[in-house]
Design brief:
By secondary structure, the protein is mainly alpha-helical. It has helices at residues 6-11, 19-27, 43-46, 56-66, 68-81, 89-100, 103-111, and strands at 32-34, 52-54. The relative contact order is 0.11. Residues 56-110 form the VapC50 C-terminal domain.
Length: 115
């Protein structure tokens, strides 16, 4: 959790309802904001702060491209940890694809043949 001074929030130029998110990213020295709501985080509003907005699908795909073994491990562990309801890896990927709209990521994970 970061405390964001109000004057930083007021200086933001992105969507007014989401200015606190960019301000928090600045205070936290984040380089990326991961959001499905890209329309409220324009490149023009983020560029002065050295921040980019990434869709979760692109972010997860990049992690999988950089760290494939770790991402496979994470997906397997998440599948094992789910109890209510329990999900196989295939079912978990189906759910991620449908509910979280991370189709590129799930397609890439499926290429690893981890079932």
């Amino acid at each position: 959790m970061v405390e964001v001074p109000q004057h930083i929030v007021a200086a933001m130029t992105n969507d007014p309802d989401d200015r606190h998110v960019v301000a928090a990213a600045i205070v936290a020295k984040a380089q990326i904001i991961v959001t499905s709501n890209l329309k409220d985080f324009s490149a023009e509003a983020l560029e002065p702060w050295g921040i980019e907005a990434w869709h979760p699908d692109d972010f997860l795909l990049e992690l999988d491209n950089q760290f494939p073994r770790k991402m496979i491990q994470v997906i397997r562990q998440q599948s094992e940890d789910l109890q209510n309801p329990p999900l196989t890896v295939a079912e978990l990927l189906d759910k991620l694809e449908k509910n979280n709209k991370v189709k590129k990521f799930t397609a890439n994970i499926r290429l690893h043949n981890i079932f």
